[in-house]
Design a protein that fits this description.
Layout lengths: L10 H16 L3 H6 L6 H15 L4 H5 L2 E3 L2 E3 L10 H12 L10 E5 L5 H9 L4 E6 L2 H14 L5 E4 L14 E6 L4 E2 L8 H4 L8 E2 L6 H12 L3 E10 L5 H5 L7 E8 L5 E8 L1
Parallel strand pairs: 3-4, 3-6, 4-5, 6-9, 7-8
Antiparallel strand pairs: 1-2, 9-11, 10-11
Helix pairs in contact: 1-3
Length: 279
C-alpha cells in the first residue's frame, strides 16, 4: 500500500487503486479471489510492483492498465490521446437526444478533435448506420482511434487528419447533419490547477489554449459550420466547454445564422455543454 501513495493522494484512493490493480493482474474480482483463495505468483507480484511504481510517479491509472471505459465501450488508453471523461459521455447523450424521434439512421456526424475516438465510436455503437468521421490534427491520436475501432470491429468509420485552423476550401465534400467537439479549452495560466497525472502525462495540445484566446477552437468551428459548409441547415453543433466560458461560447452563435442555443450543466452542477442549430 505504501508504494501506491502519491503526494496529493489519500489512503482511500490508494486502496481503490490497489484493488483495481489486483483485479487486473489476477483476472478476477475481489469475491472470486477470496472464494478461490488466490495467491499471487512471483511474476504477478513483480507486475504489481512495477504498476504501483508507475502510479506513485503520477501516471494515470488508465495508461497503466492500458484501457479506459466510455459509454459501455472499453478503449485503449495511452499518452497519444486524452483519457475519456464522464462529462464527455454527457455531451454524447445530450446530442443523441437532439435527434427527433423517428429520424432514420444514415445521418452524417463529424467529431472534431476525436483523440482516442471515444465520441465517434460511442456514437457508432448507438447508431451503427450513421456515417461517422473522426477528425484530428494528430496522426498519433488517429492511430489510437483506428486501433480502438479495429478492436471494437467498427470498420466503417472515416479517420481524417486535418488542422481546422488552416484554410479548408476543398473540405468537406458535403455538409454534416451533426458536428460535435470537445476541443482544447484550458488556458495555459490554469496549468497549476490541474492534477499532476493530467498536466504531466496527457497530451498538451489536446488540453491547452492561449490565455489571450481561449475560444480559439470554438470560434473557428462555429465559423466553419455556418460559413464554410461543414454543417447542413437544421443540423446541430454540440460543444463540451470550460465551465467558466459557456456564456462566451453561446455568444458566438449569432441569431442571423443560429437558433435553439442551449447551455447545459453536467452532473456535477458545472456549466459544461453548449448546443445550437444552424438556420
Amino acid at each position: 500500500m505504501d508504494r501506491l501513495k502519491r503526494k496529493d493522494g489519500d489512503e482511500r484512493e490508494s486502496l481503490a487503486v490497489s484493488r483495481l490493480l489486483l483485479d487486473y493482474v489476477s483476472g478476477m474480482d475481489r469475491s472470486e479471489r477470496i472464494s478461490q483463495q488466490w495467491r499471487a505468483s512471483e511474476s504477478q507480484l513483480e507486475k504489481m510492483s512495477l504498476m504501483a511504481d508507475r502510479w506513485s510517479s503520477d501516471e494515470p491509472l488508465q495508461y497503466i492498465l492500458n484501457e479506459a471505459h466510455f459509454m459501455g465501450l472499453t478503449l485503449q488508453a495511452d499518452p497519444r490521446a486524452l483519457i475519456p471523461r464522464p462529462e464527455t459521455e454527457e455531451l454524447v447523450h445530450a446530442l443523441l437526444d437532439k435527434i427527433p424521434p423517428g429520424v432514420s439512421e444514415g445521418l452524417r456526424l463529424l467529431d472534431i478533435g476525436t483523440g482516442s475516438g471515444c465520441i465517434a465510436l460511442a456514437w457508432k455503437s448507438r447508431r451503427p448506420e450513421d456515417h461517422v468521421v473522426g477528425l484530428d490534427v494528430s496522426e498519433d491520436s488517429l492511430a489510437q482511434a483506428r486501433l480502438n475501432a479495429e478492436k471494437l470491429r467498427f470498420n466503417d468509420l472515416d479517420w481524417t487528419c486535418r488542422d481546422i485552423l488552416m484554410e479548408n476550401s476543398d473540405w468537406p465534400s458535403s455538409p454534416f447533419d451533426m458536428v460535435v467537439s470537445n476541443p482544447p479549452y484550458i488556458p495555459n495560466i490554469e496549468r497549476h490547477t490541474l492534477a499532476a497525472d493530467v498536466v504531466n502525462q496527457e497530451p498538451e495540445m489536446a488540453l491547452f489554449v492561449p490565455d489571450a484566446d481561449p475560444l480559439l477552437f470554438y470560434r473557428r468551428i462555429v465559423e466553419g459550420c455556418c460559413q464554410e459548409g461543414w454543417l447542413r441547415s437544421g443540423g446541430w453543433l454540440g460543444f463540451e466547454c470550460h465551465r467558466d466560458f459557456t456564456e462566451e461560447v453561446c455568444a458566438l452563435f449569432k441569431d442571423a445564422f443560429w437558433r435553439d442555443v442551449d447551455r447545459r450543466k453536467d452532473l456535477n452542477g458545472n456549466w459544461r455543454m453548449v448546443f445550437a442549430r444552424l438556420r
